[in-house]
Amino acid sequence: MITLRAATRDDIPLLDYWNTLPHVISSTTDDPRAETAFDGLDWDEDFAISEEHGTDVWQLLIAEADGRPIGAVQVIDPHLEPTKYWGDIEPGLRALDIWIGEADDLGRGFGTQMMTAVIDACFANPNVHGIVIDPLASNTRAHTFYERLGFQLVGPQTFGEDDCLVYRMARP
Question: Whole-angstrom Cα distance, residue 96 to residue 104?
Answer without folding.
Answer: 23
